[in-house]
Amino acid sequence: MNIHEYQAKALLKSYGAPVAEGVAIFSADEAKAAARKLPGPLYVVKSQIHAGGRGKGKFKELSADAKGGVRLAFSIDEAQAHAKEMLGNTLVTAQTGPAGKQVNRLYIEDGADIDRELYLSLLVDRSVGQIAFVVSTEGGMDIEAVAHDTPEKIVNVAINPEAGVTAADLAKLTSALKLEGEAKADAEKLFPILYKAFVEKDMSLLEINPLIVMKNGRMRVLDAKVSFDGNALFRHDDIKALRDETEEDAKEIEASKWDLAYVALDGNIGCMVNGAGLAMATMDIIKLYGKEPANFCDVGGGAGKEKVAAAFKIITADPKVEGILVNIFGGIMKCDVIAEGVVAAVQEVGLKVPLVVRLEGTNVELGKKILNESGLAITAADDLDDAAKKIVAAING
């Protein structure tokens, strides 16, 4: 689960991280009152969407030379003018895709006198099974580009969970970021705070880009991106309350209600599979035969008839879907249960696109019998290769 920048900063501030004063607003009429609460005279007006690259983004509805989704204002009136122009419009960034995201809220923040911009993130480094700091002196830039062009400028420091952030860890991090004086002292306080927040709130990513050193020598969290482990949200009602469903795909929201692993993609073949590995293989073979998957959908090993039907409805609700491939290996899940769920869903929502079903495993013959006797236009497949060929051929007409 993702949250907005202003929510992430409030969370980090509650742990003691140095964050500028700021106010979230939901209408342009709130802009003046919000700016008056800040010291000024420089204000930063930031679009709040779940995507990076906001500063370089473009609004669909505005002219090509219009400023991006993060703007400086040198007066309260200018802050309000920015708010009027940004709210309600669609911001397109490198991470939103061409459809962009509508800006429904802004964050007006006190400006900062920046001397240096640094990069810092915490994530789960699965290669060592520990939480790791990833830092670079190249803050404010696309970290993927830095990793590609100058990988030597990125430093990883894995943290032993029994010891926590040690003095040796801090020495490595501050050295990598070339910090001295007050900035170094601030970092030595900040880094354990960030690690504590990451662990206690079950984060999967905490990214600060940039983490700045101001001209007065002090450090500040200038931006913050936080994602949480969805499997741990049952422990954090305070975090669940921060969820903004307007930033999420409606199909993914519905899938979460059924505990389905569903991710919307840009292709035209809907996929319903049990098991993440099988789902990836199914998407790969669709691409092999020249088409693109419309989604990743893993119904899990123990899904019942109702869950299967729900998954099918979610897939058919996607207007991009021109065909559906159901690929099930019945181990824990039985093929007849899958067949019953598919038939029930088709009978309820109708079938407007080709449907190919490949079943294998427990009760496979009974599952095929249910499909064959349903009277529905369902094409059976013998194996995965056969299934992929048939669904691609059906779409191609």
Automatic annotation (TrEMBL):
Its cofactor is Mg(2+). GO terms for biological process: succinyl-CoA metabolic process; tricarboxylic acid cycle. GO terms for molecular function: ATP binding; magnesium ion binding; malate-CoA ligase activity; succinate-CoA ligase (ADP-forming) activity; succinate-CoA ligase (GDP-forming) activity. Substrate binds at residues 274, 331-333. Keywords: ATP-binding, Ligase, Magnesium, Metal-binding, Nucleotide-binding, Tricarboxylic acid cycle. Belongs to the succinate/malate CoA ligase beta subunit family. NCBIfam families: PRK00696.1, sucCoAbeta. This is Succinate--CoA ligase [ADP-forming] subunit beta. It comes from Sinorhizobium fredii (strain NBRC 101917 / NGR234).
